[in-house]
Write a structure and sequence with these properties.
Blueprint: E1 2-3, E2 15-16, H1 34-42, H2 53-64, H3 66-117, H4 123-129, H5 134-143
Antiparallel strand pairs: 1-2
Amino acid sequence: MYISEFDIIGAGHTIYHVNKVIAETGQIIEDGTDISSLMSCFTKKEFNNPKFPRLSKEVKYLKTTEGGLNSMCTVMKYYEDIAEQRGRSEGLAEGLAEGRSVGISEGKRLSYFEMVQDGDMSVKKAAQKTNLTEEEFLKEMKLSGFNLPQEQTI
């Protein structure tokens, strides 16, 4: 995978996944074309290709000088920050959705406790509505501070 601040291939992407074929364009690598020679430069740790003197010079600068290394670190930090922010945003959205769901469920459960306490609903029916056994329902009702119906004890 090659990531660049600019479109090195000129096909409208800043990220290219390269095997023997460029996934985004379908172009075959190592076919003797200039693009093939260019892409082979990216597979080498160090290179000095006379076909691409500017690229050779820039890669050497980025890999061997303090200024180049600082530039690379800055770019990596930028993408790291974007990824972190995206992760936080997605996590927050998931957390809010889960929190709403739990809150709604808890609100319904408390409503059933109140209806049983007030005699408006049977324990059996409320337990069914909350997917609990009657014993579990009464136990949770008591733990939540509600008064149990007179005929019920746990």
